[in-house]
Write a structure and sequence with these properties.
Helices cover 45% and strands 20% of the residues. The protein is an alpha/beta fold and 360 residues long. A hairpin with a 2-residue loop joins strand 7 and strand 8. It binds nicotinamide-adenine-dinucleotide. This is 3-dehydroquinate synthase.
């Protein structure tokens, strides 16, 4: 088992990562002070079917727990499910000592974290991530839900008590979810670690290479990069924005597709390619990345999406300022920066990007 200590200004907590580290859950629960009156496990139906029993067996009789299982899919990170979880928590008389357990990928982590961050003005929660992508989402304390007007528009910063990342849970991920999560690993490498990027490019030739020790090593490196950034800028006043590399367009693509038919990371991968195309210095890197992503089976740009509706969504991005869309670009590998664009100029660039993509 590996332990990474996350040190944000508001809270320090461990990430336990390794095969079968789910057994750490009891240790974490027993060390909580005050001891929780009861627990609320929030999961989705896929993860629930696969791992709920394992988690319940680990808890055993040590604590009483309630479970709420919601449908899977990013469109479930909704007001309706937020309300359902709050009503359920109230009906089961959770109090301020109670603890929410987020068992699932980033969708569940964000939703359950937001439920915990706002129930009775905030109760504790534990992240049990079950996707590769969640090496990113489970760390750093951003929680929230989607609004029809935009992704992750409603939320709070709320750090977990611990992250228990049992990598044996990752073996059941379908191929598109492996790709989705790996896109965020690539993002971490691109914005912060040239060596990591180069070694991943050299070693990951197909998504079947993403397993076992090499996967775990990449996840640990990704978590360390995220930790370094959130330690310096927990509430995204500055450099944390770099973690949004690829996300301004990626979120718009997800929104236009109504969070269906493309995974989060696949959309982010397209957003990263667009961001790299915006600067002459990174065009070659972008071409190389495109070839690599293609070999790994990432989808190409959905050709029916229009630049103007995507840019309309990008204007609502949380980083947008005074009518300018802030894009995270790379000056070079590992060196991100923020660049403002008018919507008109971004739309022109996106139109040509989509046109190029549709020729392929
Ligand atoms: N809070 C943050 O800092 C942050 C960072 C990045 C992404 N996110 C959010 O994370 C979400 C995406 O997370 P995700 O990609 O984990 O999606 P997800 O939670 O929707 O999971 C993807 C799919 O995989 C299934 N699944 C999960 N674990 C599984 C397992 N072990 N075996 C088989 N199937 C499994 C789920 O049921 C779902 O169908 C987005 O909502 C995104 O906005 C948040």
């Amino acid at each position: 088992m590996n332990t990474i200590d996350i040190t944000t200004p508001s809270k320090k907590y461990p990430v336990f990562i390794g095969d079968k580290v789910i057994d750490q859950l009891n240790v974490v629960l027993e060390n909580l002070n005050p001891s929780p009156k009861n627990l609320l496990i929030i999961t989705d139906e896929n993860v629930g079917n696969l791992y709920l029993e394992t988690v319940q067996n680990v808890i055993g009789d040590a604590f009483t727990y309630e479970t709420i299982q919601i449908h899977a899919g990013d469109d479930q990170k909704s007001f309706e499910n937020y309300m359902a979880c709050q009503s359920f928590a109230l009906s089961k008389e959770l109090d301020r000592t109670s603890v929410v357990i987020a068992l699932g990928g980033g969708m569940i982590g964000d939703l359950a974290g937001f439920v915990a961050g706002t129930y009775m003005r905030g109760i504790r929660f534990i992240q049990i991530p079950t996707t590769i992508l969640a090496h990113d989402s489970a760390v750093g304390g951003k929680t929230g839900i989607n609004h029809p007007e935009g992704k992750n528009m409603i939320g709070v910063f709320h750090q977990p008590e611990a992250v228990i990342y049992s990598t044996d849970f990752l073996t059941t991920l379908p191929a598109n979810e492996i790709r989705s999560g790996f896109a965020e690993v690539i993002k971490h490498a691109l914005i912060a670690d040239e060596n990591l990027y180069r070694s991943l490019r050299a070693s990951v030739k197909s998504i079947d290479d993403l397993k076992g020790n090499s996967l775990q090593k990449a996840l640990i490196q990704g978590i360390k990069i995220k930790n370094e950034i959130v330690t310096q800028d927990e509430k995204e006043k500055g450099i944390r924005a770099y973690l949004n590399f690829g996300h301004t367009l990626g979120h718009a693509i997800e929104g236009e597709l109504q969070y269906k038919g493309i995974t989060h990371g696949e959309a982010i991968a397209l957003g990263m390619l667009f961001a790299l195309s915006l600067k002459e210095d990174t065009e070659i890197l972008g071409q190389e990345l495109k070839m690599w992503l293609r070999t790994l089976g990432y989808p190409s740009f959905p050709k029916h999406l229009s630049a103007s509706s995507l840019v309309n969504r990008m204007k609502k991005d949380k980083k947008a300022e005074k009518g300018m869309i802030q894009m995270v670009l790379l000056n070079s590998l590992g060196k991100p920066s923020l660049s403002p664009f008018t919507s008109e100029s971004l739309e022109r660039k996106l139109s040509s990007f989509i046109e190029e993509a549709s020729k392929e």
